[in-house]
Amino acid sequence: MTPHQQTRPEDEKTSIARLSVASNTTLVLLKLVVGLSLGSVSIISEAIHSGMDLIAATIAYFSVKKSAIPADDDHAFGHGKYESVSGLIEAVLIFIAAVIIIREALLNLIEPGEEILDPTLMFAGIAVMGISALVNAYVSHRLMTVAKLTESVALESDAWHLRTDVYTSAGVMLGLILIRITGIAILDSLVAIGVAIVILKAACDLTTKTWSDLIDHRLPDDEESRIRNIICSHSSKYVNFHGLRTRRSGPQIFIEFHLVVDPKVTVLQAHDLTDHLEYDLKTEFPRSYTTIHVEPCRHSCNECSSRCDIRSEN
Q1: What is the separation, in whole angstroms, between the first and last Cα of the chain?
Q2: Which domain holds residue 70?
Q3: Which residue, of 164, 182, 214, is where some domain finishes?
Q4: Total Cβ atoms within 10 A of residue 171
Q5: How far apart are CA 72 and CA 251, in angstroms?
Q6: 8, 91, 167, 203: least buried by Cβ within 10 Å?
Q7: Among 158, 187, 214, where does a domain finish?
Q8: How many separate domains does the chain show?
Q9: Residue 122 pLDDT greater than 70, yes or no
Q10: At residue 250, does pLDDT exceed 90?
Q11: pLDDT band for position 203 (50/70/90)?
């Protein structure tokens, strides 16, 4: 693997994070100008929401750059946790955005404004919300694609953040259209509350995921099953394995287990076997780091028959 290939994923992560910052900055300015000119609470609320998107995108950008720094003496396991922390902060920001939208919508329901929105400026507001939804749909798709390829928690969090902005922008646009058609102003607030509920659900899911990473929760069942299958594929060369432990740190995965071998196996043979296992696990999980503790079989058998208990159980 060339140096260029090694740095390419990190460069791609930084590039897409920078795009998110730029798009959010533009949308915040557009929404503020139109919202203040029109006097629309929903558009101003959306500007606040996009402002939080901008903060989240900035946090994601710096966390991605920080997590790419190689391991050092003070951080022997790398800097991947920066992305998990970033994801948790973004989840909190989504919660705050939802609360702000609900608050503004309820206030608007309790004390609706008496002024009729200017029809010309209303069309401008509808256009801005439509542009916002399209731009964020595109950027969030790009972010999610890169996040899945690089297993970046920070980019995935940012993608979910922008995806909620797609829903809110579309909701506000729908509310403005309905107000224009029917003249019923409270529709704007009712749509905003419905959208906020969707946002809260996304925030809950994101909080659960990032919190699991921060407290070193094991990998999901399907990923651990893939790890076990890889180990079992070499069962003819060892007696058993046990003590499998896994955890995630940002985009990095850490795998540990004990490998029981025939006492007659030489150090060189055991080393070659662990190298082979590490290579296969690295192929399946490119950002994984594996630690294997080799130990001799303690049973007294005339003939050592290699087996894999996990495979037998399954």
Answers
A1: 37
A2: 3-214
A3: 214
A4: 25
A5: 17
A6: 8
A7: 214
A8: 2
A9: yes
A10: no
A11: confident
Both tokens assigned to 270: 């055991």
pLDDT band at 255 (very low <50, low <70, confident <90, very high): very high
**Location of structure tokens 């740095």:** 7
Q: Which residues on adjacent β-strands are paired with residue 295?
A: 260
- Work out the angle at residue 156's Cα, subtended by the Cα atoms of residues 151 and 162, and round it to the nearest 5 degrees: 160
pLDDT for residue 307 is more than 60: no
Sign (positive or negative) of CA dihedral 14, 278, 295, 269 = negative
Please write the tens of the pLDDT for every residue from 80-114: 666 667 777 777 877 887 787 788 778 777 776 55
d(CA 306, CA 206) in angstroms, rounded, equals 43
Cα(120)–Cα(13) distance, integer angstroms? 41
Taking the C-alpha atoms of residue 190 and residue 201, their distance in angstroms, rounded to an integer, is 17
Residue 168: closest CA among 292, 51, 9? 51
Q: Two tokens at 20?
A: 């998110």
136 touches 20 (CB < 8 A): no
Pairwise CA distance, residues 273 & 275, whole Å: 5
What one-letter code names the amino acid at 131? I
Going by C-alpha positions, the residue among 239, 261, 233, 260 that lies closest to residue 307 is: 239
Say if strands 288-296 and 252-261 run parallel, antiparallel, or are unpaired.
Answer: parallel
Residue 305, sorted as left (phi over 0), alpha (psi -120 to 50) or beta, turns out to be beta
pTM of the model: 0.59
Checking if the pLDDT of 159 tops 60, the result is yes
Q: Are residues 38 and 177 in the same domain?
A: yes
Region of 288 on the Ramachandran plot (φ > 0 left; ψ -120 to 50 alpha; else beta): beta
The radius of gyration computed from the CA coordinates of the chain, to the nearest angstrom, equals 26
- Distance (Å, whole) CA 269 – CA 273: 6
At 37, phi and psi to the nearest 5?
-65, -40
- The residue written with tokens 């076990």 in the block is 228
